[in-house]
Write a structure and sequence with these properties.
This protein has 448 residues and is mainly α. It is 76% helix and 0% strand. The structure holds protoporphyrin IX containing FE (2 copies) and fe (ii) ion. Fe (ii) ion binds next to helix 6.
C-alpha cells in the first residue's frame, strides 16, 4: 500500500463480502424452495428471497467496484484520495441503504421491476452515493497523473451512474417500460461494467506481470472499443418479443453475437500478458483469479450468452432455465471473479502482510468455479428439457417443472458447495495471518 487513504478500500471490501454472504445465503434458500416448495412459504415467500438474492448481488458488486476504484486510483494517479472522509460517509450511506432495503423486503416494502425493486427513497440515496463517489474519484484523478486505466475506469463509473437515472423513468405502457429497463440492466453488464472490468484487469496485469504499460493500454483501448461497438446495439437481443419494431431481430442478433469479441479479447489479453510477463508475482492466487475471471466471463457471458441470443433461438428459449444458467455463469465469471481477483491481490497490502494462506485461497477458487460450473450445467439441461417439453411440445409450465426436480436438486447441492467455498475464501483473506516468511517479505512492496 503506497498511500494511506487506500485503506478505505479495505472497508468497502469488508462490507461487500458481508453482502456476498447474504446473497449466497438467500440463493441457497431460493434453491431450497425450488425443491421443497412449502419451505418458509408464509414467512418469507420465494419472490422476496429472490429479490434479496439478486439485489444483494448487484449492491455488493458495485461496492466492490467502488473499493477497486479507491484502491487503484491513488496508485495510478499517484496521490491520496481527495477526501477519505467522504469515502467513508459514502460507504456508510450505501451500507445503510442496502440493509434497509433487505429489511424492507422482508416486510414486503418493495416496487415491481426486477432488479429495481428498491423503494424510491433508496433509489434517490443511490444517486447521492454515486455523486459523492464520482466527485471523490474524479477529483483524485483530475489532480493527479492521468492514465488509460483511470480514464477507462472513470468512463465506466460515470456510465453506471448515468444509466441508473433510467430507474426513475417508469412509463405506464409495459412495452415502453421494458425498453428503458434494459437501458440499466443490459447497458450496465454488457456496456459500462465491461469498461470497469477491463480497466481493473489492466491494472492487475500492469502490477502482476510487469509488462509495459504502453502494451497493456493498447489492449485496453481495443477491448473498450469492441465492448461499446457490440454492446450498445446488442441491447436489441432483449427487444425481440416485447412489441418493439421488427428490425431489432436483425440488429439484436448481429450485434449481440459480436459481444463475444470483447470477452474473447480479454482472455487473449490476460494470457498474452502473463506469457510476456517478466515478473513472477508471489501472489499466485490473485493471478489465478485474474486469468480465471476472463475465462469465466468468456464462457458465462460469451458462450452461454450466444447460446440464446439469435432471435430464432430466443423465440423458444426466452425466460427459461437457460436464461438462469447464463445469468449465473455470466455474473459469476465476469463480475464476482473480478472482485475476488482484486480483493485477493489487494488484501495482503491492505493488511500489511505478505501474500498468505494462498493454498486455501487457491482451493476456494477451484471449488467455487467447479460448483458454479455444475450449477450452470444443471440449469442448462433443465432449460433444454423445459424448452423441448414446454415451448416445442406445448406442455403446461407446472407440468414441466415437475419433471425438472433432479436438476433443481443438483443446483441446490452445487449451491451448498459454493457456500463452503465462500467461507474458505473469506477465511483466506480475512483470517489469521501466519508470520510472513523472510523470503517473501520483499514481495510485499507494490510492484512497479
Ligand atoms: C457479463 C456479462 C453479462 C451478464 C452479467 C449477463 C446477465 C444476464 C441476466 C441476469 C439475464 C436475465 C435478465 C432477466 O431477464 O432478468 C440475461 C439475459 C440475456 N443475456 Fe446476458 N449477460 C451478460 C452478457 C451477455 C452476452 C455477451 C450475451 C450475448 C452474446 C447475452 C445474451 C443474453 C440474452 C439473449 C438474454 C435474454 C434471455 C431471455 O430472453 O430470456 N448476455 N443476461
Ligand atoms: C456468486 C454466485 C451467484 C450469482 C452470481 C447468482 C446470480 C443470480 C442471478 C443474476 C439471478 C437472476 C437470474 C435470472 O433472472 O435469470 C439469480 C437467481 C437465482 N439464484 Fe443465484 N447466483 C449465485 C449463487 C446462487 C446460489 C449458490 C444458489 C443456490 C442454489 C442460487 C440460486 C438461485 C435461485 C433459486 C434463483 C432464482 C431463479 C428463478 O427465479 O428461477 N444462486 N442468481
Ligand atoms: Fe443483454
Amino acid at each position: 500500500m503506497k498511500y494511506a487513504s487506500q485503506k478505505v478500500a479495505y472497508w468497502y471490501f469488508t462490507c461487500a463480502m458481508l453482502l456476498f454472504v447474504v446473497q449466497i445465503f438467500a440463493g441457497g434458500l431460493a434453491g431450497t424452495v425450488y425443491v421443497l416448495p412449502n419451505v418458509l412459504a408464509d414467512l418469507l415467500p420465494f419472490n422476496i428471497i429472490r429479490m434479496i438474492h439478486t439485489n444483494a448481488l448487484i449492491v455488493w458488486l458495485l461496492m466492490g467496484f467502488f473499493g477497486c476504484a479507491y484502491y487503484l486510483v491513488p496508485e495510478e494517479a499517484e496521490r491520496d484520495i481527495e477526501s477519505p472522509l467522504l469515502a467513508y460517509v459514502q460507504l456508510g450511506l450505501l451500507m445503510f441503504g442496502a440493509l434497509a432495503a433487505v429489511g424492507g423486503y422482508t416486510l414486503r416494502v418493495h416496487e415491481g421491476r426486477e432488479f429495481l425493486e428498491q423503494p424510491l427513497w433508496i433509489k434517490v440515496a443511490i444517486v447521492v452515493v454515486a455523486l459523492i463517489f464520482l466527485y471523490n474519484v474524479s477529483m483524485t484523478v483530475l489532480k493527479g497523473r492521468k492514465t488509460a486505466v483511470t480514464s477507462v475506469l472513470l468512463l465506466g463509473l460515470w456510465g453506471i451512474a448515468l444509466f441508473w437515472l433510467f430507474a426513475f423513468y417508469e412509463p405506464h405502457n409495459i412495452a415502453v417500460d421494458k425498453l428503458y429497463w434494459w437501458y440499466i440492466v443490459h447497458l450496465w453488464v454488457e456496456g459500462v461494467w465491461e469498461l470497469v472490468m477491463a480497466s481493473v484487469l489492466a491494472f492487475l496485469m500492469i502490477k502482476m506481470t510487469g509488462v509495459d504499460r504502453e502494451v497493456i493500454e493498447k489492449w485496453l483501448y481495443s477491448i473498450v472499443g469492441l465492448a461499446l461497438f457490440s454492446g450498445l446495439l446488442g441491447t436489441g437481443h432483449h427487444y425481440y418479443w416485447i412489441g418493439a419494431p421488427g428490425y431489432w431481430q436483425w440488429v439484436g442478433s448481429i450485434f449481440s453475437s459480436l459481444e463475444i469479441a470483447p470477452f474473447f479479447a480479454m482472455v487473449i489479453f490476460a494470457f498474452a500478458m502473463v506469457w510476456k510477463g517478466r515478473r513472477d508475482h508471489p501472489n499466485r492466487a490473485a493471478m489465478l483469479w485474474s486469468i480465471g475471471c476472463t475465462i469465466g466471463a468468456f464462457f458465462g457471458a460469451g458462450i452461454w450468452g450466444f447460446l440464446h441470443t439469435l432471435s430464432s433461438v430466443n423465440y423458444y428459449s426466452h425466460g427459461t432455465q437457460l436464461t438462469a444458467a447464463h445469468g449465473h455463469l455470466a455474473f459469476f465469471g465476469a463480475y464476482v471473479m473480478l472482485n475476488l481477483a482484486l480483493i485477493t491481490y489487494a488484501m495482503p497490502y491492505l493488511r500489511g502482510r505478505a501474500p498468505y494462506n494462498q493454498a486455501l485461497n487457491i482451493a476456494s477458487f477451484w471449488l467455487m468455479t467447479s460448483a458454479m460450473t455444475i450449477m450452470t450445467f444443471a440449469l442448462t439441461f433443465a432449460g433444454v428439457v423445459q424448452i423441448q417439453l414446454q415451448r416445442v411440445m406445448g406442455q403446461s409450465y407446472m407440468e414441466v417443472q415437475d419433471q425438472l426436480a433432479l436438476f433443481y436438486w443438483i443446483r441446490l447441492g452445487s449451491g451448498v458447495l459454493v457456500a463452503i467455498s465462500v467461507v474458505m475464501f473469506l477465511w483466506s483473506v480475512f483470517g489469521p495471518v501466519r508470520e510472513p516468511k523472510p523470503a517473501t517479505t520483499s514481495a510485499l512492496q507494490p510492484a512497479e
